[in-house]
Write a structure and sequence with these properties.
6-stranded antiparallel β-sheet, alpha+beta, 31% strand, 1 helix
Length: 190
């Protein structure tokens, strides 16, 4: 039997994973490396975009929480006033602006007298500009009633907080504190 040997006179077909001379290919080609780098860069870009969205959402939540806290403090301060106090007279009362950790807040409140039964509706309004330049307002409402001959005030019915913005229709509700008279501390009511 005779063996036929192949002569290298003509081009040999290139097999996957082998070089033209029949030697195994080692390493990656430049095109493969560029594709891998492109995929990694796209992934990092997507992660940075997600991170920016999370930070923006976190900032808005901090501002809403801070505005709610400021509004609650306003109502707590009013609850310890005498029924006949000028601070509880009907109308809109402006308070000094407050510089918070995440924004500057304009603070005011409105008192409305109601007759049957006799109580006052108090709405604390805290306004600020969010990180996207839109004006946001948090309103917290409560009802106060004269509780005794000494002119002390008690909470008739806690209402709630509503946050509204000029550029979106989002609103969130949170309960106003019910009967605590210590500023900054409250118990939830419904």
């Amino acid at each position: 039997m005779s063996q036929k040997t192949m002569c290298s006179a003509g081009p040999q077909p290139k097999l996957p994973g082998y070089r033209a001379g029949g030697m195994p290919q080692q390493g990656l080609g430049i095109l493969e490396v560029l594709i891998v780098l492109l995929v990694i860069a796209g992934g990092l870009l997507a992660l940075s975009k997600i991170q920016g969205g999370l930070l923006s959402g976190s900032s808005g939540a901090k501002q809403q929480a801070e505005a709610g806290f400021i509004g609650q403090r306003v109502l707590e301060d009013l609850r310890v006033r005498a029924w006949s106090s000028a601070d509880l007279s009907p109308g809109v009362h402006a308070l000094p602006s407050v510089s918070g950790r995440s924004a500057a807040y304009s603070v005011s409140y409105e008192v409305t007298d109601n007759s049957e039964p006799s109580y006052k509706t108090v709405v604390a309004m805290v306004t600020w500009t969010d990180s996207q330049g839109a004006s946001q307002t948090s309103r917290i409402t409560t009802r106060l009633q004269k509780s005794g001959a000494d002119g002390s005030v008690r909470v008739l019915q806690p209402q709630g907080a509503v946050v509204t913005g000029s550029s979106s229709n989002q609103s969130s509700e949170a309960s106003s504190s019910s009967s605590s008279s210590t500023p900054g501390k409250s118990s939830k009511g419904g």
